[in-house]
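Q: Here's a chain of 616 amino acids. Please give me its 3D structure as tokens.
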Amino acid sequence: MDELKSVNLSKFVSEAVSYICEAKLRSADIQAAVQVCSLLHQRYKDFSPCLIQGLLKVFFPGKSVDDLDADKNSRAMKKRSTLKLLIELYFVGIVEDASIFVNIIKDLTSAEHLKDREGTQTNLSLLSTFARQGKFFLGLQPHGQEAYDEFFKELNVTAEQKKFFKKALNSYYDTVAELLQSEHVSLRLMEAENAKVLSAKGELSDENTASYEKLRKSFDQLLRGVSSLAESLDMQPPVMPDDGNTTRVTTRTDALPSSGKDSSALEPIWDDEDTKAFYESLPDLRAFVPAVLLGEVEPKSNEQHAKGREQSSESTSEQETELHDDFQTSATEHQLEVKLDGGVKESDDKDKEKGKDGEKEKSKEKDLDKKNDREKEKGRAMDGASLDNILQRLPGCVSRDLIDQLTVEFCYLNSKANRKKLARALFNVNRTSLELLPYYSRLVATLSTCMKDVPSMLLSMLEEEFNFLINKKDQINIETKIKNIRFIGELCKFKMAPPALVFSCLKSCLDDFSHHNIDVACNLLETCGRFLYRSPETTIRMANMLEILMRLKNVKNLDPRHSTLVENAYYQHQQYQIRWPGQLGWFSTGRWSTTTPHRRFWWFLSQLWQEKMSLS
């Protein structure tokens, strides 16, 4: 910056503009580029018009450009960075006319681009960036920027322009939402056709598999783009029917039993009745806690107090009118007997008495208000102390009865602030206390019946932490990653976390199947993999994920520890069939390893021995 101030670049303005327009800027470089442009704008008059014209060429290159189809990904990234730069330049005053954004939005929301799927994805990303960074153009309040209201008011964006931006983006969102719905229907139809082919022939052709994967990938990308645009516009993202249960069709024949029936349908989801009761038999809070404390019924005490006050006010008003009438009649009679001066003195004395009574009533009201405030403060202090006591007892709840009792006690302190503190305390569980995660998840599942915001707050924090940890490339603090993914898995078994979130986390690990991601994926499968594999809605998709897991294990040169982890995670769900010699028939067994329980091992041997003895 000091060199730019000291050097005369008046003869090289066009070169500076071309370098800025051709630079591959990242999001972190935008602010530095704005500072450079601001300095050049202050020193050279010809800089800003040339810069704006050069930046707009990125969005309107013209039909004569030869490399339009060269690298669409790089062009999309260039458009995104250029749009961010233009918005920042408008905020600092280098770009003075907001009409340039009108032309850009008109082009991005054009119906012609909807025919090209890659173009639609690019436009969705650009419009999400515009709506997120330029909420002021849409007349929306930027989150956390209330202090800059005066700054935004000084920007010369007319009401008509704001109306145009909002209408254009909302109509485009409705259009792509309809496109998403139609593509979802097409995906469902293809899945149904593939299921028929699998049941008839036992496998899918390579062409059908490729077309399905292509359609599935296109649908996932479109769903992410539409959801991002909805979030930027402060709207609810579209909800696909049974989206969390959308399953992929596998082409592997050994993933399907030879009998033509799904093996997971024959096997129960839970291994025993105690486990089933722990995850499915939740206490009914309405039977232990009054409905008023759960927020389901508004307190009637206020209504009763209001009615009592109205009745008391009516009675007092009637008494006052009667006394007033009596006073008037007595005064008229007295005036006939007493002199006028004496009557005036008595009226003055009564006025003084009334003034004293009014002052006494005001002082009493002030004292009552002070007492009420003190009682409220004491109540808040008591609630805070009792909430802290509950949060301190959380790590000691290592049984079903203890966690259920603590859940009921928390309901007596139900408030929005306390629910936020509880969600934060659950999220901050010690990374080595993995045994607490099932009980914490049971607490969340129990509260979810009456307090819908508790699981949503906790899930948002866990998902944000997972995305942060998965993007970090340093290979330390694996315990935090394992705690995070096992917490998500336990919430999934309580049906608090949607299966789509679990599959998304698993896919992120499989995309970069190395180092800690292997441990995270295996821990996720050990926690809720069997639950998803045995659930009818997700069994096919989980089988597909397990197939990818084994392919990656065979392709990559894993160390013995990771190889054992992958095998244990895989064979915990999958089963294979062997042909026993003689007339024993097909007998389904699991793969024997050092982790196989001895009880199951001896049970299999006893079954084989009994069948052999019956045949002999």
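Q: Can you summarize the key feature?
A: Residues 334 and 343 are 8 Å apart (CA to CA).
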